[in-house]
Amino acid sequence: MAPHDKNAGAIPSNGLAFDHIMAQTLALDLEITKDGQKLKHIGAICQGQRFEWKGATGSAQALRDLDAFGDQARYVLGHNIFNHDLPFLKAISPGLRLLDLPVIDTLYLSPLAFPQNPYHRLVKDYKLVRSSLSDPLEDVRLALSVFEDQWVSFTNMGERCLEILSFYKHCFQEGRFNGFSGNGLAAVFNLTGAGCIENDYSARDQFIRLTDGLVCRQGVDRAYAAMDPAGPEAPIAAYSLAWLMVAGSNSVLPPWVRHQFPKVVPFLKALRDIPCGYASCAYCRQTHDPDAQLKRFFGFDAFRSTPQTIDGASLQREVVLKGLQNEPLMAILPTGGGKSLCYQLPALVRHVRRGLLTVVISPLQALMKDQVDNLINNTGTPFAAAIYGLLTPPERGEVIERVRMGDVALLYISPEQLRSRSVRQILAQREIGCWVFDEAHCLSKWGHDFRPDYLYAARFIRELCLEQNLDLPPIACFTATAKPDVIEEITAYFQSELKQSLWLFEGGVERDNLLFDVLPIGTAEKLEQAFDIVRQHLDEHPEASVIVYAALRNTTEEICDYLVRKGLNAEYFHAGLEGHEKRRIIEEFVAGEIRVICATNAFGMGIDKSNIRLVLHYDLPGSLENYLQEAGRAGRDMKPANCILLYDSKDSETQFRLAAYSELNKDEIQRILKCLRRSRLNKDNEIVITTQELLRDEELARVFEKDGGSSDTKVRTAVSWLERADFLERNQNQTQVFQGKPLVKTIEEAEPIIQRCKLPQMMQELWRGILFVLFNTASNTGLSADEIAESLFPSANRLNELERQFGLTAAQVVIYAMHEMAAAGLLDQGMMLSAYVHLKGKKNASRQLTMVCTLEERLLKLMQEEAPDADSGGWVDLDINRLNQRLQNDGEESNPVTLRQLVKGLMQDGKGLAGSHGSIDLQHVGGSLYRLALQRSWSAIQETAALRRSVAELIVRVLVEKAKNLLTDAQKGTTSEALVEFGANELDDAIRHDLFLHSKIQKPLAAIDRGLMFLHDHKIIALQHGLAVFRQAMTIRLNPQHRRRQYTLGDYKPLAVHYRERRFQFHVVLEYVNLALDKVARAIGLALDYFSMPRQNFIKKYFDGRQEILERATSVESYRQIVESLNNPVQIGIVGSAVRYNNLVLAGPGAGKTRLVVHRCAYLLRVERIPAGRILIMCFNHNAAVALRKRLVNLVGKDARGVTVATYHGAAMRLAGLSVREMMDKNRATENIDFNALIREAVGLLKGEKEIPGLDPDEARDHLLRGFSHILVDEYQDIDQDQYDLVSAIAGRTLEEGDGRLAIMAVGDDDQNIYAFRGANIGFIKRFQEDYQCGTTYMVENYRSSDHIIQAANQLIAQNRDRMKNTHPVRVDRQRKAEPRGGDWEPRDPVSRGRVQRLIVKDSFHQTLAVYEEMERLRSLKPELDWSCFAILGRTKVALDMMRAFLEKKGVPIRVGLKTGLPLLRVREVHRFISNLKDREREIRRASELFACLPDEQTNGFCNHWTEMLKEMIQSYVDETADTELPVSYFVNWIYEAVLEQRREKTLGQGVFLSTVHGAKGLEFEHVFILDGDWRWPADIKQQEEERRLLYVGLTRAKETLSLMEMEKKGNPFISDLHGDFIFKREITCRHDVCREEICRRYRVISLSDLYLSYAGSFEQDNTIHKQLAMLGMGDRLQPIGNGSGIDLKTGGGYCVARLSSKGCELLSGKLKEIVEARIIGMIQWSAESSQKEYRQNLKVASWEVPLFELIIDSSQAATASSPPDW
């Protein structure tokens, strides 16, 4: 048997009276249908006889039988029958006799019988807690049992004070409740000994006597004046008196009393809350005196003397006084200024006065426990608690129960918790005395930490008060940092929303004991400097602590790691840590076990540790508000402390970037609104949806995917703003949770069960996937059902199919499936928990438990010695400090904190162990003083505590054993702490198998709960969440009045103001830093002005004449680099143009077109903070895209990540959702892709010409563009029809402004349109102004070439008539105007003096020699010249072959272009690299780590250009991704696209650049030679102009010198007219040591079709040919040799390693003697799969290698060197 309550036992001496009334009582309970219309079940007992009826028909007869059954009864009894059973009976059968009987309602008696425990046994929120909801007869027995307890209580009460019973009798006599007689209640009091009170006046006098000293005497008069003591309100006085008898403890009026008798609240308020002002009133003199209450609860003799009011009084005292007077207020006090006490003290007093709950809304979830612990330690009160997301179910359950029972005076909650149904329900149980908004600046859009969830609080408060039928309680707002505009907005908000005018108390922000400093520092020495500063402070203050703040999580980890390696005791803290780690770090830091914390601002507010001597800001804070909040952690003991900020100018962009990272634009919010409007409504016309379900909408997925970051937070923020704009109403969250664990260990073990269930294929897949996820998830993890579904079905189509198949959302399907899996025996469903358990050392769980249990036994013995007669009832005094001293004197390891926790635990004891209430009731008198009332005898209390300790010991044994079983033998010797997963069912089984506990415990789950909390509270174990799968959905109701309204700029304005204010706040920080670097006092002056001056006055004082910088989302230095450094008014105007401005920029060569695009993009990213994912840059080729991205990264760093820089076909493939990888793998044999077809497909989709199922054309366009808002196009003059259509479709050329059109900037030069042969059309750039209704800007300052080169180019192109820049000639940039026109070579070169040379040569042979000699001459004038500074350009490739042969003979390094179409994916190095990557596709790596995946190089003495190409690609990917950790699969897909681009543009080598002019487009070189030999004068004028543009492009590649070669016969016709002082013409006669025949060469790359690809594959794997092929590499030579039937390719050793195809043989037929050599340029991987079917049967291996080579051909027999080869 469990220990009994002390009041349990036999019927008391007036048992005859009890028997008498029971013999005359009909006890009754009804079961009614949910709609309240029909009777389902009747149960009744009278005179020991039972009556029962249930059925669907015959209820009328049953009621007549019931009436007859109770015919002898004089009373009718039941629980809540006044409001439930009797009204129903009267409605359906008004003639029943029993309806006229006096009623005994046990619900009405409970608050009078058990005022300290008004929820005794069966009472809970107006209703009976039923052990069996379908058994009214059982409920009747329980009601009779409750009545018996009440009778015992009233009998004992009468023995102590008969006047109380008499007063109760008077209040209920002749009363009617809900139309029924209350005389039954009066009869109870009469029969238990109550006397009679003559009249209401006598009753009032008796009330005054009974409450003497408990209430204000004047208050009694006020209270009685406001009610009718003779009417139905008379019980108000009875309930008030009952509560007053126990006031000051943890008792509360049950909510049903407030509901049934609304005037009880103002009655008690008049008695206890309103000070009368009379010195003679002892109650008011003590209770309403702030100084007395301060001393009582905090032990302080006086309030803080500073800050002061205007008249010199303590501001803190004035704030507390207003709080005690229940006035709404707002207080701004400096950090460390006693702000928390200002609301904590009134909260504790309110609880004592009327049992009221004060709710503190705080953003500091991770620090709430610390705040609660601090309050308990500072005051000794046990009546503080917090509800936040980190609580485990037992913790949360205990807090909720304590709130309900009145054991909590001060409840901390986060604003998000207000959306919780359970929180709303429990708050409705209590009368709220005050709503406190801690960190109230979060309410204001002008505040630095604005949180939209805070704005829901006012609506919540308003609705809760309406639900409770109570007046609005006062609002109290507190912050340490609020500017005038923040104060104004907050006060206006509460005036508007709750009609409360807040008293304002301003205490400023200044802290005299803090010494501020700013130290300039460079990035490289930052860590070392931080260490030196921290170490110095720790050395100077051995007992002190330090906080180092950083902006980013990874930075805190880097700092901490550095400090630890340097020998300091440090930890890092940020929001990404697990709850257990956060708790541990905070507790150890507060206890002094950790001396240095490296933290983000997640540690910025709420930490209250007195001895922090240094706060070091490693990074710039986001605002002065944040800075002072964080700096305010220092010196809270009011002793001197240092606040140092390390300033690195590069850090400024971090804060701007962080702010922009979380921003939402109007379009995103509008998209979310559209998605909500498309969402399915439930039967209540509500949308119940998770953020992940919203984000799966295609329209949102694209946008938020590109932005990255916390999309979940963005969606919730958007919903908050839509609610604020009245588009919708968001209500309580709806949460579904499945807790359990697998009952199988492997998928294979589960398979037979899955097969037996005969599930659809998709459900089978889901079941297996769920098991896989559960197997691989930590035991203390909460899993989102949405994330599980998305991970198992990554394809949107499959996810949609899953939802369609089951008619549920994907998350609901997962939860449903898990319940089915539990039913099938795959999952064990039940509450799952985990706990960290210490296994060894001083903290080992068994040792700790023994120590605590021993201490508790000794404590209970000592408490009984101190108050042996407490068994008899009444209150006894308890002094924790005195008990602690006595225990220490007896040799016990005791401390007040542990003792307070043990005593608090006794309040919880008994639940599940010995009854329905705790072992003791507790009143906190103040400090270490308490008053104690026993609810059981001392022996029963000790027995109950021993039982709880036994349960705890059992739990520890189970957990320790489980932990040991989890560890290997090696781990058992080293692991001190383990995370153990367990279920409530396991512990229940353990109790059932323990014979002693099983016999003693009636409610094992409740006992387990209590045992776990005992262990957790004393830190013997650290409880954690168990494995759970949840779906947390928002409940949203759309406003039907605005169903067609769009979200406008006006709606968005408040949010825009908030974002603008954040930028302003950081500019203020930068100004603070600049002033502090000069003089700290000036910076402090700025800070004080910032918090006190009106905004405009502050701006005028500190930013006069510089106001424009405040609008920029970047620093002054960054703006200078992006805009002002251009030093060109035209470029500055273009870069800084309006965000939505369309612009065509006609830019001459060397004018900085790419630079302009880069800086415009940087401006959008940094200054306008357009998200990187919204910007698309179109480049003509891959090399241009790589170069542009690299320049962008160099300019803005990580901000460039996410910008799409693509070629036209690359952009088309992304838009159309096509995979280069899949397409190229499909066409591996040729790797041929029709790029123009790709572009046309993308255009068709964007225009709506191709249907996307489920989307109309407008939606399809939005879906495809993925949120792009800006498109920047480089080299616009070179686009063809398909590319023009693509740009038009992306930009929305045909759409109306604002209807999805993108802002476009195109940069081009019609004079450089040279790709007409590819379809490029100069007409498109000429139509741009008409297409996009924009102006044209001319950019003609040349930054590349010397003035002489510019003039030559101008003279050439001026001969063209069809030009757009006719009146805008290119000119040298203004910075070089004063320099020599020939640049540096004018004084350096005595021959040309920097002029453009026209070099006359005899023929192509002499041209080759002349170019070489001229290069050597230039190198002699400037010895440091590298060969890569030279470019030799020809009209066609033919003119370049002799030059190449000569340079190779001379050993000059060259860089040449390869013929397009090479199968690069098959090149050995590329193939092996991609294979290495594919083996790691599931891994997550940084781009820089991929260098390690490169294959080993086989150089054979040559530079391996393929490996170099791969290195360049990896580096490009590093730049593009900012070296972020990403799945390797991303890079595999990326490299396919990059290889595809290289395939079209590949060049090999490093050295003199040999290329056609077309191939040199977009490049620049110090020294350029334009070869003669194949320039012709077309007859058509249009073609003449095209040729002239081509030559113009060649000329303008030159930076320093330009040499135009001119043969004597048939020379270049376009240069003959170039004349002027910028031209120098001379003939060159060359000396030479080579003959023409040696360098008359042609170069041809053999194509795959020329090779017999299956040749090596026809040999077995062990054949020598495969070894020979493996030894070959780039640069090796082969010799083609005829074999009679074909042509073989042999190595120098004579091994045949390849053979030409019939096509190749035909090509070389009769020309083998002309081939000088075959040079390998790459080894190609080939396979049986890639071979034609007719060859496969002869293959002996699956894959092999084929050499790809270039033929070098002797062309000396050709008629002229310039004639084309005949093959």
Described by strand count, sense and barrel closure, the largest sheet is: 8 strands, mixed
Which structural class best describes the helix and strand composition?
alpha/beta
- Name the helicity range: 40-55%
Radius of gyration, whole Å: 43 Å
Task: For the record, give the distance between the C-alpha atoms at the N and C termini, rounded to a whole number.
Answer: 108 Å
Regions with little confidence, pLDDT below 50 for 5+ residues: 1-13, 121-133, 1759-1767
What is the average per-residue confidence, as pLDDT, rounded to a whole number? 87
Number of strands: 57
Residues in β-strands, percent: 15-25%
**Total count of helical runs of at least 4 residues:** 69
- Shape designation: elongated
- How are the strands of the largest sheet arranged? 47-44-48-43-49-50-42-51
Q: Could you please describe the fold and organization of this structure?
A:
- This protein is of the alpha/beta class.
- Helix content is 44%, strand content 17%.
- The protein is built from 69 helices and 57 strands.
- An eight-stranded mixed sheet has the order 47-44-48-43-49-50-42-51, with helices on both faces. Strands 12-13-11-14-15-10-16 form a seven-stranded parallel sheet, sandwiched between helices.
- Helix 50 (1182-1196) links the parallel strand 35 (1175-1179) and strand 36.
Summarize this structure as a short list of keywords or feature phrases.
single chain, 1767 residues, alpha/beta, 8-stranded mixed sheet, 7-stranded parallel sheet, 69 helices, 57 strands, elongated, disordered C terminus
